[in-house]
Amino acid sequence: MVDRLKRRSRAASEPAATAPTIENLLHRHREEWARARSKAASGPPVLIATNVTGFQHATLLEAVLAIALTLRGARVELLACDAAMPACLRAERQTMPTAENFRARELVGRTCPGCVALGRSLLGPLGLTTHVFSDLVSDYERADCRHLAETVPAGEIRRFRHREMSVGEHAEAGALRYFARGDLRGVDGGEIVLRRYFEGALIAATATSNLLTRRRYASACFHHGIYVPQGPTGEACRAAGIPVVNWNPSYRRNTFIFSHGDTYHHTLMQEPLSAWKALEWTEAMESEIMSYLDSRRHGGRDWIWFHEKPDEDFARYASEIGLAPSKPVVGLLTNVVWDAQLHYPANAFSNMLEWVVATIDHFSRRPDLQLLIRVHPAEIRGTVPSRQPVTEEIRRAFPTLPANVFVVPPEAHVSTYAAMEACDAALVYGTKTGVELASYGIPVIVGGEAWIRNKGLTWDASSAEEYFKLLERLPFGHRMAPDTVREARRYAYHFFFRRMIPLPFLVPKPGKIYDLSLGSIEELMPGVHPGLDVVCEGILNGAPFIYQSERHGLHDA
After folding, report:
1. Distance of CA 74 to the CA centre of its chain
2. Quick one: angle between helices 530-541 and 56-71, nearest 10?
């Protein structure tokens, strides 16, 4: 999610854009801040591992968390990269346009100076102990990381474990993110970029591991939780027994999602049902969640959306593309192929594209049904446009598309919601839209790692065989039972209003994702913002990251 938000403006990468906010805030309250730091010197140690400090929005929030935790008595320390890796999250096409830039190790000159400078401007005024990668990795270890990155067979990198840490998975995810692809087959320069990310992952894991042998922390908090270097940092913390907290901007404006132990990409699917099943349900809560879900059709209450005015007249669109009104339609929703390419053991297929191709093949033998594939608009409208379009992959697998299969391209302005409402059922792999569709009573079959999985609300396949058996049951010919729809809405309320924690002092601002709106550091004290209290309690004491919106209100922007 951070990736999809971060490029609203390149201005977000300029150090001068936000630094005075943090610096001036602390300068105005320098005596209070000095007293707070002195008092917290003997408090529980917390590591904020910002690492890649060049993401203005991530570093800004983590600077605020450092202040808030210190005000609650925590001894906060910081971890940052200081131009120590040959590839990382900040390696982007604008600054590192070709694999040759990686081969020549040009990240340190092209990207690192601005990244390090932004970190100093935002984190420096805090006056907190800061550890940097170059001080934590010896010359011998750096050479060993480089040797491994150059000699491990490319096909074995994904599964490579270093000191029992799964660093290879995050290295591959980082390379895929850079190329905006779901795989590296046939990609010019793919191996050299992968090896540079692998080296960066090894350095990050080594630096974090070495720090944790010298200092013990009550918890470690950092953004993403995947890619390089955040993924390997998480691996090192878990290996050392340090509780991990990961976060990302969520969907609703002013809200963020925090998770214990790992990135939310993993944890949301395993969240216990008890976290929301016992939620006392009222008509007012149902009205609130349905109002919000209706708003998602045009994104009016979210950080980001992909259609300003989607075309809701699906009947007209269906007629134009040749859908037969006499045959049931089954919808299929794709996600962006490169996003969060991690290992999910319960997946029925190895990746989304394999799932799409297998599903089309199945429907080619089901002339009684029609398959409507809606390609995610973020493929072209996201901040990192995909370089492996689903439409091209479908065309490669099926030069002639089966007559009963229809593809809605990402540029189509037709409403995804209107399209799915016209379907007998929806097939999803990794999209969170399954949460919304179930709330409207549309039956959902899950073939991948969608967050609606394991909630007792959808048909979840853990193998290809299970998936095809579920498809054989189509068409269902009816909507979900009213009791199940009510449970789906209860979960949607939990997902969108309770797991997405409002931090109202972080406000949308033109030219940036968000900026800080604080009059004094007293606003970061306990009892002022319930959402911030939830976050700090989770980091300090392991409390669930659940905001009781039913008690405190939604705090929408």
Report:
1. 27
2. 80
Question: Of 547, 556, 551, which Cα lies nearest the Cα of 504?
Answer: 556
Per-block mean pLDDT, blocks of 10 residues, the chain (557 long): 36 37 91 97 98 94 98 98 97 94 98 96 96 98 98 97 94 93 92 98 98 98 96 98 97 95 90 95 97 88 74 95 97 84 68 95 98 90 76 96 97 94 96 94 94 94 96 98 98 97 90 85 96 98 97 79
- Alpha carbon distance 146, 318 (integer Å): 55
H runs (alpha helix) in 56-111: 56-71, 99-103, 107-110
| 342/142 Cα distance (integer angstroms) | 26
CB burial readout 131-149, b (16+ within 10 A) else e: bbbeebbeeebbeebbebb
Tokens of 167: 């660093």
φ, ψ for residue 44 (rounded to 5)? -65, 130
Query: From CA 334, how far away is CA 328, in angstroms rounded?
Result: 20
Report how far Cα 374 is from the mean position of its chain's Cα atoms. 21
Whether 265 and 281 have beta carbons less than 8 Å apart is answered as: no
Q: How far apart are CA 480 and CA 425, in angstroms?
A: 10
**pTM of the complete model beyond 0.90:** yes
User: What angle (nearest 5°) sits at the alpha carbon of residue 200, between those of residues 512 and 257?
Assistant: 40
**84: which 2 tokens?**
């120590």
Name 257's bridge partners.
248, 500
Residues 231, 244: contact at Cβ < 8 Å?
Answer: no
| Alpha carbons 415 and 299: distance in angstroms, whole number | 12
Q: How many CB atoms lie within 10 A of CB 25?
A: 22
List the beta bridge partners of residue 51. Answer: 80
Give the whole-angstrom CA distance, residue 331 versus residue 471: 12
Domains of the chain: 2-271+500-552 (no CATH), 281-498 (3.40.50.2000)
CA–CA distance, 204 with 128 (Å, rounded to integer)? 21
Instruction: For residue 269, give every residue at least 6 positions away whose Cβ sits within 8 Å of its Cβ, in sequence order, or none.
Output: 344, 346, 449, 450, 451, 453, 454
Q: Could you tell me which residues come within 8 angstroms of residue 372 by beta carbon, excluding any fewer than 6 positions away?
A: 323, 329, 330, 331, 332, 406, 408, 419, 423
423 SS3 class: coil
Among candidate residues 385, 374, 273, the one with its CA nearest the CA of residue 339: 385
The C-alpha atoms of residue 159 and residue 95 are separated, in whole angstroms, by: 29
Query: Which residue in 226, 104, 225, 92 sits closest to 172, CA to CA?
Result: 226
